[in-house]
Amino acid sequence: MTDKIAISLLNVSKKYQLKNKQGKNFWALKKTNLNIAHGERIGISGPNGAGKTTLLKIIAGITTPSTGSVSVSEKVVSLINLDAGFHPDLTGRENLYINGLLANISKQTIKNKQKEIIAFAKIGSFIDQPFYSYSAGMKFRLAFSIAIASNCKILLIDEIFATGDIGFQHKTVEKIKKLQEKSHVTTIICSHIPQHLLALSNKFIHVKDGNIYNVPDSKFIRNSKKQISHWNNIYSNNINKNY
After folding, report:
1. Residue 73: Cβ within 10 Å count
2. Assign residue 204 a region: left if phi > 0, alpha if psi is -120 to 50, beta otherwise?
């Protein structure tokens, strides 16, 4: 990792106007300052509605901030909305070309990597079926396979990381690790699954009520282990009751 700044947010806030009688404003992000160096591995936790997805969308350029400035110095590929960049009526193979071009992959490169992308996605004959027939897991498999073929420098993943089956989740984690180690890809991952954040992050951020808090590594690891132990006990007790 170098000291080169890949992403910089200065005093960034995002306001949405709620559609109700009062027409009140909702601040999804509040005066956010954040610098992420090239090659850093950021894990983001926080409750639903805290502002995590808004943060990623602003970094990806999907939405613009209401105040403040954003600077992104490298090529970004985002896996935030599984349907983004895909046409529901086109086949997976046809969408592969469209989504690949949107990710700035040349048509020739897509053609050369087509077999590799399809093989990694492991969706079989569904590659020639319309996209609307895909499950959430299949959509993620194809979207992720295209993303890693794009030679991006910044990879954003939001929650949908867990939509694949356990086998593909493991495969995804290992692939991201290789990108981090060999290509020094800057990764920002939002997840409610602490194991994923622990495996893929070296810096942790917690988002709550539109505010961002840096979390010391030791504290995040300690809290995550408690959370993992808590859920393991629940699963174990349920299994013992049922069998």
Report:
1. 14
2. beta
Which among 209, 220, 219, 206 is positioned nearest to 44, based on CA atoms? 206
Say if CB 158 and CB 137 are below 8 A apart.
Answer: no
- Final residue belonging to a domain, choices 112, 135, 151: 151
Q: Quick one: CA torsion of 212, 215, 220, 223, rounded to 10 degrees?
A: -70
Q: Is the pLDDT of residue 73 over 60?
A: yes
**26, 15 contact by CB (below 8 A):** yes
Number of structural domains in the chain: 2
Q: For residues 139 and 157, state if they share a domain.
A: no
pTM of the model: 0.83
- The answer to whether residues 153 and 75 touch, using CB atoms and an 8 Å cutoff, is yes
Strand partners, 32: 12
Burial of 187 (0-12, 13-18, 19+ CB in 10 A): buried
